[in-house]
Design goal:
- The complex is a heterodimer.
- Chain A is an alpha/beta fold.
- Chain A folds into four domains: 189 residues, Pyruvate-ferredoxin oxidoreductase, PFOR, domain III (Pyruvate-ferredoxin Oxidoreductase, domain 3), CATH 3.40.920.10; 182 residues, Thiamin diphosphate (ThDP)-binding fold, Pyr/PP domains (Rossmann fold, 3-Layer(aba) Sandwich), CATH 3.40.50; 70 residues, no CATH class; 115 residues, Rossmann fold (3-Layer(aba) Sandwich), CATH 3.40.50.920.
- Chain A has 19 helices and 23 strands.
- The chains are: A alpha/beta, B alpha/beta.
- The interface between A and B is large, with 70 and 55 residues.
């Protein structure tokens, strides 16, 4: 039997709230520390304790980060999903299962490794057995796959920072799991872990924490939020970091945090801070953005800086709160009633989460309009490898704010909504400054900010707003292109699909189709997007939703002669994207497109 | 002095910061002639002027409705924000978090506050958000042409339509139960009382609610309405005579009333003086305040005056734990941590 090194998927089925998360993170971290390219996806329920959870670990020397097309190693601990999990396995799958679960192992066509997990755990500490049952399978897996003990122990230390008794208990459990396998079973599978040289040191971090840090380096002055999965850890990340990086020796901070009564109030607070001249933001998910629609329209129409982070989950309605999707694209881009258009940023990596975290404030103040960041559960709540965050490359851009009386007096005429520079962006003065006070309003207004229902005023205002947002397009992050000259097919995609695109590309290439990649990073779309579409025979717009939301937006905005070149591939079942599914859909769509 | 200072043709009265009252006025009202809200606007102008607040250091906030249009009619030198229906408290809260140095005067109506925006009102009270909240209460939705609001009294009848049978929400009672730190009720026709209460509210640090009955002359000023001018004038029960002595006027120079009175010192050193009329009302007693409201409701009366006051609670700004400087005045360099800090964070993640 030939060994298969660093190229397989492990699926671990446990129950929520049993400590399995720490066990799985220890496994993931130890693989990472051995230099193995690895990714972990937590498929957790909307529940605190008891419901089934799966953790998927993909090892891939190719650097593929999406779950593999099949499960190669299944860990079965949860009796509730036992039968279903077992039935789904392909013949030959390795199954590490809890012998104490009193459930049957009715498959003869798999590689079976029974481990008495509860019994081993009880032997170590009867009182804490429940908490260490899961760590036993990590020990067994380490033995089966050849994970170094040193890497495991260092991961345990990282997980239980400084808690000596927890470290000792877990280390013992790991060792017991290992020795049980060594003494009672023999390896009958091909899967092994091989250490890889680490070229650039990297660390694991969640997208939400990266945005939180980015926002604090962006000078955030107010976080107003309402808890919602999967965005809460973004807000909590800020709350955790403020005392460390935005607080003086007297314990006084420069970033206010208010947990609002609902998402409407959170949005209102963000607008209030922007109106007053501060940098305010909120973190939410799709249902929260739905509730914020009215304020979003006000921010657009009255031109109030405001930053909204949407960590997308599966909709519509409450949907699948703990699953991932890119389904808020249209809602963010065209949010609120009436004609609107908003700036939306789509980070695709944790490094970009940090970068867009601070840039969002510069854009919102520069263009005096709401700015959205769209991440998703996959990027936000899973751990991704990061080589380090890059310090902001430019000073904070506070936009066209007149703070100085001399500057103010140099204006021939000052109107809050006068287009002095011809770029659609007016100048503003701040409350308390005593300069050009106006009553901001969501009703129609003329360039002086005075209430108006006159057709000319309305038309002029709406035209200017369109010019303003349109002028942002090439000042926003440009798309990332991976292009080969001879390619006829292009793929436009965004956000967390970055983690699956290379695998999709390789699957397509294996069938003889070479594609160029274009990762859109902001809306309104950069003019490079149009050029990319123009350069290719056909362009697939690839996204994690049902309706092809980005496809719809691009179709409307690109020149009409390019529209027939666009093809939509949109798919979402709530699971993190798997390369094979999307590659197959692309092949099918291309075939249909030729007919 | 040999030279006589140049005097204006007509002596213009200036306030303590040498501003004429004109510095506090606004645009022409577009409300119905005789609207209670216009009287309140005039009192706001007067109170801000008499208190000597720099006009540009005031922020005038509102939601949607007749009342919420009024910020255009007063304090033309102040920035304002006419926000969305019922959501003025959250916008004010966000502005306050980044600029605590302004005096926030919010104006709202009974539709804005008792229905669509009741949640935001409640939570602003809960946070003891530092603002003056003037509720212009007329029992009907004016801009949509006279539907009952949630403060319409049982048995009251507006100009058109049936008698209201639905239990009203008394926002003063609600506020007292929520621990609001300044709760008053007044009447747009009682200018002197409203003026004193408003000035006191401006001197208060924390949430100051003034529920002002302000008759709607177009839809709810008929005899059968319990929020008509005629009805309120006849059925107003005043808790006390209300006087305000500003911190810049030594209290010793103010004439002491003959009867019994109670002085309450406000956060900025000003005093509100409550002169007993018949029975004495103790504004620090929430039960007494609720009793007064309950009795008035039973008798179909409107009780006015300072119902409840508490100066012991921290306001929102103290809870936020911010630097002394208003956040919008903190230099950019202090808002963005240095490169060293990011290097440290990166290395900590790596270790």
């Amino acid at each position: 039997m030939e060994n298969i090194a660093n190229d397989f998927t492990i699926n671990i089925a446990t129950a929520n709230g049993t400590g399995s998360q720490s066990a799985n993170l220890i496994l993931l971290q130890s693989l990472f520390d051995m230099g193995v390219p690895v990714s972990g996806k937590n498929l957790f329920p909307s529940n605190i304790s008891g419901l089934p959870t799966w953790y998927i670990i993909r090892l891939s020397d190719h650097g593929y980060q999406a779950p593999g097309n099949r499960t190669d190693i299944q860990v079965l601990v949860n009796p509730a999903t036992w039968e279903e999990d077992l039935a789904a396995l392909e013949p030959g799958t390795v199954v590490v299962w809890n012998e104490n679960s009193k459930l049957e192992m009715n498959r003869g066509d798999i590689v079976s490794y029974p481990i008495p997990m509860n019994q081993i755990a009880r032997k170590i500490n009867p009182k804490l057995a429940k908490l260490i049952t899961n760590i036993v399978y990590v020990g067994a897996l380490a033995e089966i796959l050849g994970i170094e003990q040193a890497a495991l122990e260092s991961a345990v230390k990282k997980q239980f920072k400084g808690k000596a008794s927890a470290i000792e208990l877990n280390t013992t459990a790991l060792e017991m799991g290992r020795s049980y396998f060594r003494e009672n079973l023999s390896k009958q599978d091909p899967y092994i872990v091989e250490e890889r040289a680490i070229e650039t040191p990297q660390f694991f971090v969640e997208g939400n924490e990266a945005i939180a840090l980015g926002a604090l380096f962006g000078g955030a002055q107010l976080l107003a939020w309402y808890p919602i999965t999967p965005s809460s850890s973004l807000a909590e990340g800020m709350i955790e970091w403020i005392p460390q990086i935005r607080t003086n020796d007297d314990g006084e901070s420069t970033c206010a945090v208010i947990q609002a009564e609902d998402e409407l109030a959170a949005a209102g607070m963000v607008l209030g801070s922007g109106w007053a001249g501060g940098r305010g933001m909120t973190a939410t998910s799709g249902p929260g953005i739905s509730l914020m629609q009215e304020f979003i329209g006000l921010a657009y129409f009255a031109e109030i800086p405001s930053v909204f982070w949407d960590v997308c989950r599966v909709g519509p309605s409450t949907g699948l709160p703990t699953r991932t999707q890119q389904s808020d694209i249209t809602m963010l881009y065209e949010g609120s009633h009436g004609d609107t258009q908003h700036i939306v940023l789509f980070p695709g990596t944790v490094e970009e989460c940090f970068e867009f975290g601070w840039r969002a404030f510069d854009y919102t103040e520069r263009f005096q309009t709401p700015v959205f960041g769209m991440s998703d559960l996959d990027l936000g709540m899973n751990r991704w490898a990061c080589s380090g965050f890059e310090y902001p490359t430019q000073e904070m851009d506070r936009g066209k704010v007149v703070r100085d009386r001399d500057v103010f007096e140099a204006f021939e005429e000052f109107g809050r909504y006068l287009d002095v520079d011809g770029d659609g962006i007016p100048y503003r003065t701040l409350p308390g400054s005593g300069m050009a006070p106006i009553l901001y309003r969501g009703t129609g207004h003329n360039p002086m900010g005075v209430y108006s229902e006159k057709p000319h005023d309305y038309l002029q205002l709406m035209t200017r707003l369109r010019t303003k947002i349109d002028s942002a397009r090439d000042q926003l992050p440009a798309p990332i292109l991976r292009e080969e000259k001879e390619c006829e097919i292009g793929i436009v995609y965004l956000g967390s699909m970055e983690n699956t695109i290379q695998e999709i590309d390789d699957i397509l290439e294996a069938t003889g189709i070479k594609v160029s990649q274009c990762r859109l990073r902001a809306l309104p779309a950069h003019s490079e997007i149009e050029n990319f579409i123009d350069r290719h025979e056909k362009t697939i717009v690839l996204e994690i939703n049902r309706d092809g939301q980005l496809y719809g937006i691009l179709r409307k905005e690109i020149p009409i002669h390019l529209v027939p070149k666009l093809l939509s591939v949109a798919y979402s079942d709530g699971m993190p994207p798997r390369g094979k599914i999307y590659a197959d859909l692309i092949l099918k769509t291309l075939k249909e497109g030729q007919l | 002095m040999s030279e006589k200072p140049e005097r204006p043709a007509r002596a213009i009265k200036l306030n303590v910061i040498n501003e004429p009252k004109d510095s506090y006025t606004g645009g022409k009202s577009s409300l119905c002639p005789g609207c209670g809200h216009d009287q309140i606007s005039n009192v706001i102008i007067n109170a801000a002027w008499e208190n000597g607040i720099k006009p540009h250091k005031i922020a005038k906030m509102s939601g949607i409705g007749c009342s919420s249009k009024t910020p255009a009619y007063y304090l033309g030198q102040s920035h304002g924000f006419n926000t969305v229906h019922g959501r003025m408290p959250s916008v004010t809260t966000g502005a306050y978090a980044v600029n605590k140095d302004l005096l926030y005067i919010g104006v709202s109506g009974d539709g804005d506050s008792a229905s669509i925006g009741i949640g935001q009102l409640i939570h602003a009270i809960r946070r003891n958000m530092d603002m003056v909240y003037v509720l212009e209460n007329n029992g009907v939705y004016g801009l949509t042409k006279g539907q009952y609001s949630a403060t319409a009294d049982i048995g009251s009848k507006k100009k058109k339509g049936p008698i209201n049978k639905t239990q009203p929400i008394d926002l003063c009672a609600l506020a007292i139960n929520l621990g609001c730190t300044f709760v008053a009720r007044s009447f747009s026709g009682s200018k002197k009382q409203l003026n004193a209460l408003l000035k006191a509210a401006m001197s208060h640090k924390g949430f100051a609610l003034i529920d002002v009955i302000s008759p709607c002359v177009t839809f709810n000023n008929n005899d059968e309405s319990m929020k008509s001018y005629g009805y309120v004038k006849e059925n107003e029960v005043t808790l006390h005579m209300t006087d305000y002595i500003p911190h810049f006027n030594p209290i010793t120079e103010v004439e002491v009333p003959e009867g019994h009175f109670r002085d309450i010192t406000l956060h900025d050193g000003s005093t509100i003086r409550l002169e007993t009329i018949s029975d004495e009302h103790d504004p620090s007693n929430a039960v007494a305040a609720l009793t007064a409201l309950h009795e008035a409701e039973t008798d179909a009366k409107h009780v006015t005056g300072l119902l409840y006051f508490d100066n012991t609670k921290a306001s929102l700004i103290e809870d936020l734990g911010l630097v002394d400087t208003a956040l919008i005045d903190v230099p950019d360099a202090e808002l963005r941590p240095g490169k060293d800090m990011l290097n440290k964070i990166n290395s900590a993640f790596l270790s």
